[in-house]
Amino acid sequence: MKKIILIAMLCVCAIGVSQEKMVSKSAKVTFEASVPSFEEVKAVNRNVTFVLNPATGEIASLALMKGFQFKVALMEEHFNENYIESDQYPKAVFKGKIEGFDLQSLSADAKDFIIKGKLELHGKSRDINTAAKISRSPSGVSISCNFSINASDFNIEIPNLVKSKLSNKINIQVVAVLGTKRQ
């Protein structure tokens, strides 16, 4: 009888552990499309949702376009109305997987991993492959990565009037600190 109870308890614990996800609702995404000698074109969104399934290494992230803040209010207005068209395309979504991810192998020292997935932005979807630094943090797991996309790949048009002041190549930085959440 004791063995049956012990086995049942282990099964319940295993099911509970397998349903844990690591989540952040305050991940930070920064993008920059600046051109030398002109005003900085840079924005930050500090309210990005980021989810990691530590058992599989699958990740997903959602950023609302109107959450990006610029130093210059007029840039923010142009970004939302003319370039990213936030009313029509309100969010960016990334879904992918961290290759070779093993939660148990992480320590406070960051390890290099490769993230592969799809970025959906402005009604288009593109494959993204990027290196990431991942480490254990006091609250869970820290992930940071940098990658570049081309605005033209997502049908984001840059008017001729400002083409010399705004780069087609957009550098993106993602930083997330994830804690455990039961699903």
UniProtKB/TrEMBL annotation:
<dbReference type="InterPro" id="IPR007372">
    <property type="entry name" value="Lipid/polyisoprenoid-bd_YceI"/>
</dbReference>
<feature type="domain" description="Lipid/polyisoprenoid-binding YceI-like">
    <location>
        <begin position="20"/>
        <end position="177"/>
    </location>
</feature>
<dbReference type="Pfam" id="PF04264">
    <property type="entry name" value="YceI"/>
</dbReference>
<dbReference type="InterPro" id="IPR036761">
    <property type="entry name" value="TTHA0802/YceI-like_sf"/>
</dbReference>
<protein>
    <submittedName>
        <fullName>YceI family protein</fullName>
    </submittedName>
</protein>
